[in-house]
Amino acid sequence: MKLTALLNTNIHKKKGLVALAKIGDNEAFSTLIHENKRNLYRIAKAMLYQELDIEDAIQYTILSAYQNIKKLKKDEYFRTWLIRILINHCNNILRLRKRTISLEELSFPSASYEDTYKDMDLQEAIFSLKEDLRIVIILFYYEDLPSKDIAKLLKVPEGTVRSRLSIARKFLQKQLNLENENMDTEDI
Predict the structure, then answer these.
(1) How far is residue 172's CA from residue 169's CA, in Å, rounded to a whole number?
(2) Which long-range contacts (CB under 8 A, 24 or more apart) does 55-61 make?
(3) Which phi and psi angles does 148 have, rounded to 5°?
(4) Measured distance CA(72)–CA(20) in Å, rounded
(5) What is the DSSP letter of 71?
(6) Where is the RNA polymerase sigma factor 70 region 4 type domain (predicted)?
(7) Architecture category of domain 1-99 in CATH
(8) What is the C-alpha separation between 167 and 110, in angstroms, rounded?
(9) Mean pLDDT of the chain
(10) What is the mean pLDDT of residues 159-175?
């Protein structure tokens, strides 16, 4: 009973903060961003690998949210709205990055072979997923968003989200099992 009352109080508090931010209260907006900073970082990290790109995406997201918060129709969807803005900025950065060619891509491959799966953990396995699978995993498991909300965020059918989750789980299980098998044979 107490937990339900506490959750309802927090929901009303957040709705109140969004309402205050919409009428120009900078402190309320700052509090909302502070409450969501870990979520923003995790999602940006899942989509972008380079820290500078991650920082840029988060800064653009905060700026866009600040400039457009009055356009938010339903206060209870602030978090989802903020994540959608971040995903759009991450996609823009990825599009711009595809247009450039790094020097590393032009260099010749080294003659030695290095086992990239030797020390793989769950985080590395997640980052080895294709972008469309990785973002679904991050939103579902790290951000606790239901597949219906993920579908709305990514503008894909809910069945596609469930399919991507299934494919990603199988891939992660396979990768992590390979790592465990490599560890077992090295210990012998």
Answers:
(1) 5
(2) 56/89, 56/93, 57/86, 57/89, 57/90, 57/93, 58/86, 60/89, 61/85, 61/86, 61/89
(3) -65, -45
(4) 12
(5) G
(6) 120-172
(7) Orthogonal Bundle (1.10)
(8) 32
(9) 80
(10) 92
CATH topology of domain 120-188: Arc Repressor Mutant, subunit A (1.10.10)
Both structure tokens of 37? 């900073």
Note the pTM of the prediction, 2 decimals: 0.63
How far out from the chain centre does Cα 67 lie? 22
Domain ranges for the chain, please list them: 1-99, 120-188
In the numeric block, the tokens 């990825």 are attached to: 94
Closest Cα partner for 175 from 118, 131, 137? Answer: 118
Residue with tokens 């209870």: 76
Please enumerate in sequence order all residues whose Cβ is within 8 A of that of 22, keeping only pairs 6 or more positions apart, or say none.
69, 70, 72, 75
Q: What percent of the chain has pLDDT over 70?
A: 74
Are 139 and 151 in contact by the 8 Å Cβ rule? The answer is no
Place of tokens 């072979």: 113
Nearest-5° Cα angle at 125, 119 to 129: 145
pLDDT tens-digit profile of 130-159?
988 999 998 898 888 899 999 998 899 999
The DSSP letter of residue 52 is: H
Residue type, 56: D
> Each residue of 9-31: pLDDT tens digit?
444 455 689 999 999 999 999 99
